[in-house]
Design brief:
Blueprint: H1 6-19, H2 31-42, E1 51-56, H3 62-69, E2 77-82, H4 86-95, E3 100-102, E4 117-122, H5 134-149, E5 152-161, H6 177-187, E6 192-195, E7 202-208
Parallel strand pairs: 1-2, 1-4, 2-3, 4-5
Antiparallel strand pairs: 5-7, 6-7
């Protein structure tokens, strides 16, 4: 598969360079929407006992900040972060030196060298396609989701842009639920939930084993 998806990585690096370790640096419009998004993503976790969580595409660790701020709610979450960008990962590690962070290209790594997690969250990994065509982004999505799902014991959560909008931006990944459901039920799992109840122009999918 083409490595054109690295253009998305470069985009996020430029956002951090321009806006710093802020929500705009993560290319979220504002803090309030991001907090809603984090809460929805973490709702994929069904258990109250200890779970191992991987924040895939963790950026500078904004989700971990949310978890720490609400530690009475998420005290059972054993957090790890992963990001492909060395520049961004350096910022995350400098803030949280005792936290487990990984830095590599998941698609270029032997799965046998990667530990398994109970849950893996992909927040914003598939919302922007930048200069990729829809077909290029769709292939990237299918390839990555399949590989990530193989490294979870319980389930994953991810978000994409909705097609139920007044207009679609060319740089965003607006994905039809019909196309998505056809793919995941045939290739991954029939055990899923689609969340479209939190007021943003996107939807979140919980995909369980």
């Amino acid at each position: 598969m083409s490595k054109k998806y690295l253009n998305i990585v470069k985009h996020y690096e430029s956002c951090v360079e321009k806006h710093g370790d802020t929500f705009k640096g993560a290319d979220w419009p504002n803090k309030d929407d991001a907090i809603i998004r984090y809460q929805v993503m973490l709702d994929v976790i069904k258990e109250n006992e200890k779970v191992k969580l991987l924040d895939f595409g963790c950026g500078t660790g904004k989700l971990f900040e949310h978890i720490l701020t609400n530690k009475e709610v998420y005290s059972h979450v054993d957090y790890s972060g992963l990001d492909i960008s060395k520049k961004i990962m350096e910022k995350a590690k400098s803030k949280f030196p005792d936290t487990n962070f990984y830095c590599f290209d998941f698609l270029e790594t032997d799965l046998n060298t990667i530990e398994t997690f109970d849950y893996i969250l992909l927040i914003g990994v598939f919302t922007e396609k930048i200069d990729l065509t829809f077909d290029e982004m769709w292939l990237y999505f299918k390839t990555l989701i399949t590989k990530v799902f193989n490294k979870t014991n319980k389930g994953i959560a991810f978000n994409v842009m909705s097609k139920s909008v007044d207009w679609e931006r060319e740089d965003l990944f607006h994905l039809s639920t019909d196309l998505l459901i056809d793919f995941i039920t045939k290739k991954i799992s029939r055990n899923f939930i689609i969340r479209n109840d939190y007021g943003l122009y996107e939807y979140t999918v919980y995909l369980y084993k």
